[in-house]
Fold this protein.
Amino acid sequence: MPGMRGVNPKQMKQAMKKMGIVQEDMEGVDEVIIKARGETYVFKKPEVQVTTMQGQKTFQVVGDHEVIKGDVPVSTEPIGIVIPDEDVELVAGQANVSHEEALAALEECNGEPAEAIIKLMSR
């Protein structure tokens, strides 16, 4: 990036954190599919980085991909949601329950921490 020469990556990360910007690598991604008008982009084993800024998540996908012309059926088989450890810890702490109970409540609430906390506190 222009003007960024000599910037310490650690200092850059700290500055971004102060501004409320969080970047993290998404682990265990097997495939990313992007469907556009008449084309489907399929990334196998991509690197995915998630940037959260002001509550919005931006996904950066890097890797080799294949472009398929026309409609491509995508499996409707449900896949498990990914629940971050921070959410489990938050729910467990707020609802004063075990890690396992918090995780179970988050799974039942589709990964929504606020909903899981309310569910656990109302029983």
